[in-house]
Specification:
Shape of chain B: globular
Radius of gyration of chain A: 34 Å
Oligomer: heterodimer
Number of helices of chain B: 7
Number of helices of chain A: 19
Order of helices and strands of chain B: HHEEEEEEHEEHEHHEHEEEEEE
CATH superfamily of chain B: paralog of FGE (formylglycine-generating enzyme)
Structural class of chain B: alpha+beta
CATH class of chain B: Alpha Beta
Strand order of the largest sheet of chain B: 1-6-16-9
Structural class of chain A: alpha+beta
Distance between the termini of chain A: 80 Å
CATH architecture of chain B: Alpha-Beta Complex
Helix content of chain A: 25-40%
CATH topology of chain B: paralog of FGE (formylglycine-generating enzyme)
Largest sheet of chain B: 4 strands, antiparallel
Number of strands of chain A: 25
Strand content of chain B: 15-25%
Number of domains of chain B: 1
Shape of chain A: elongated
Chain lengths: ~675, ~300
Amino acid sequence: MEYIVKSGDNLSLIARANGTTIATLMRLNPEIEDANSIYPQQRLRLPDTDDARQTREVGQITDCSECADDYVDLLHQADEAVFIPLTAEHQREIQQEEAVLEQLIQQFHSEMEGTEESIAGFKDSFIERLQQERVIDSAKPTEPMQLTEIRRLMGNRHYAYVRKDSGWRRHRSYSIESQDRASTKGWYDPASGRVDGQKLIDSIAKDMRSPTLKAKLTLHSSFTDWCLLEWQSDPTRWTPVDGMPPIVIGTQAQAMRYAMGASLNAGFDAKKMNAHVAAKASVSANLIEAKAHAESSWPAEEDSEWIIRYRDEFNSLQEASLGKFRALIKAELTGFAGASALLSANVHVDMKNGLPQLRGTGGSSSSQSNDGPASAEASAFAGVRADGKLEGSVEWQDTLAEPAAWTALCTLGVGAGAALGLGGEAKLKLKWSARTHKFYFNVQAGLVAGAGASGELGAEVDAGTFLAMVKCVYNSLLTVDFHKVEDIDSDAFGQLINFAFLGILAGATHAAVTVRLGTRIAERIGDDINRIRSDHRSALEREQLAITTANNVISDLARGGESWVRYAPPEVKGRLLDIFCFDYGPSFWDTYTMGYNRRERAVLSLLEVSQSWRDYEETVTRINPAGTKGSFAHNRTRLRNLMRLFPSLQIDRIESELRGKRAVPNQPVQLAKHVQLTGTYYA
Amino acid sequence: MRNLSLVTILISCSTLLNGCQNSQPPNATYDLPKLVTLLTERTRDNLAFIEGGTFIMGDFGAVGEDGVWRPYFPPTIEEDQPHKVTLSSYSLSKYKTTWHDFDTYLLANDLPLIERGLSKTWERNPFEQDPASRLFVEKPARVTWQDAKNYCQWLGSLTDLPLDLPTSAQWEFVGRNRGSKNWIYSTHDGQPLSAHPELSERVHDTGEYVPVGSRLPPNPLGIYDMADNGMEWVNDWFSETWYRENPEITDPKGPDEGAERIVRNMDFSFSRIGMPESLPSALNEEWDSISEYTFRCALQSPIPLTDSDQ
């Protein structure tokens, strides 16, 4: 098979698209000197596809250039599951290379016995050395180690490393199709996992139809794991205390020969109300990647509340519960020895007053471990090249939905590691960024206080769950003074209103609107909303806007849980009412019905869904184009005068039902009693 | 009251239809030469001299307790790597250009006084007196980048001074009190508004646009409205990479060409984005949402204006 390189291609992409690896492509195309430099129109040989292979004999040589060599050894390359027969010359080459690398590895081991300070001092020069030896390629940060794991079947060394770009890759290879097929040849016994060396050689020689492969192999029993490229532990679930969701932990190590184990532990202190998740990957030996991951949601459902702070009418700080809330934390730690040495990371999730506080703590000083010849710890966050990754999401439970389910409001992860490494206590705040045109739940560490060095952890709101966020925020506003919520910055609040308003004006479902989130259009929504109002200049046009908007509100409310209006803060509802109330004349006239016309119906429906007297009062107070505070009495009179007698009496009814009613967050919101609003009902 | 006949409705309707269109002839009622003189005087008086200097522009970040430097706003650090900038001295208008200023310019140049909606534009009256209107004379004028540029250059030719829009670097230098790293926000003290509940409440209560210089205290350089009252045009073309390619530069003017102009006065003192002339509207993609922002002019001269110049 052949592939013609297109502009924009790179070997990695081509390899992935064709289900193969860069190393295979390099081997099949020895003219490629540098994996990073291929050019358009270049012809590349690709490995045979599975379909093509089935028509051939198992184990057929994939690049048979000359088959008459004398082979003295077999090389097994682990990550590609191929055998490569070696001539005496190649064997010597590889032995030399192994020796060089072995020396490096031993040097690494012995330095790892030292103190943290000496390791730090050693690291820089060692990395430099690795670069000289082409073990590390600084141009490929995602692929730090330019090594591949091999096993030569001759001799006593079973696992060794060679550079990816050494000469061996140009030799022909013998693919191990699968254990099943191999077992038909009799050299692999799946039951015991053992390989019969002589049978393997015979099998290869036969397939090559050139029986010059003469080798006596000493197969070590540990060779049985030859196909084990990646090892993953079964996830372990651990419930620290009754009622708390279990912490799921797992570890994973690649090329596990030298990764003596990645460990992870988690603790929970019921008295102090904090959970402690520590992940430690003690990569004890060399040049291996290891991963450890942990997953924990916090806090537990029973006592999870988001405390929202606000100032009351006397300007003193009050707290109100926002509802059920939790943060899901996923920690994944990747590290490779040689550069960052070893890594460990601790993530504290601390609960105070129901507000999760995330705190990263750096690694402790180096310590000895029994896992391997040497072990030390370095902070994943402070580590030079450790790729500690911490992900999480802020989740909120919609108490209106049945059954109650957790919704991820936004995902932590934007620079999470960076911010958490700072070590300051953090608090959560909703922000709107004009720069990225997105909402963020910000974990602010010291930034507000301005004390010391600090950072900010952005948690980007997922567009798909935007409405959930609106609901969440609204839920938090039910009992508090709408103007003084300290956990939402004013830009974010303004933008929330704009989106809700847009959703109704455009008659769009939240999904259609949120698709546009994240684009620059988001920044201009406020302008657009003002302009659409002024676009409707004549009385007739305004009338049409009012009627269209009324229709949109009615159909929006019919959407139930997906409704914008239902979760809209008073600022939105006030502005909508202002649109309905455009009074060029003394009455609503769109349809001269006996009962209600559409605008009257929309006004009443909108007021019906007031969550509390407070909500209602704020809404009526804000009947003006900007949704700012005005006079309640004046606006109420304006509203009543615009409606005919019968519908306007309904306002009194709504008021009497709402009076004294306080919405209670954290419980299904009690909506005002629904009244069927049809023309005939009151006629 | 509530039961009107169709006739009444039609009459009131047509009255209002006409009412919307009675515009008075603009030039007749205004003493233009005097307005222009007042404008140039005001412009000179409002210029604050800014002594140049060297600073780290962009998300300068901070070093954490662990000794590692990190940006304040990781999501966009790639676009806004901190970079060293040296600025010559210049002067910057303490206030944003108001509608009063801008309408004077339009009248003096016999340019159309229009208001822009989404799907249409229409004529308007100059010097709007209704404080609730977005065109209220004391509020900052929100115009296209080209209009802002033309305005500053017109004032420049009128006064024979090198007036122009400030560059992005000049804006940030002032917004951060001469490039201070204590000014993470471009407020009067570098703290976020939320650190001052009474101010943040005032901003929340009074809406997005207010008469210039009326809401937040000026910064130590005497410049108003650097942290609220609308995003602001500056002179530069926007480029994600230009500062990466020019990590150390004196009096940067940005790339020579581009498709978007930089807008400042956003989340942080170092925040900036590019905005094209227009975008499809969120309400209807067939409509153009023309980008209009506030602006102020700068005196592109290292020598301060003195009384003798006037």
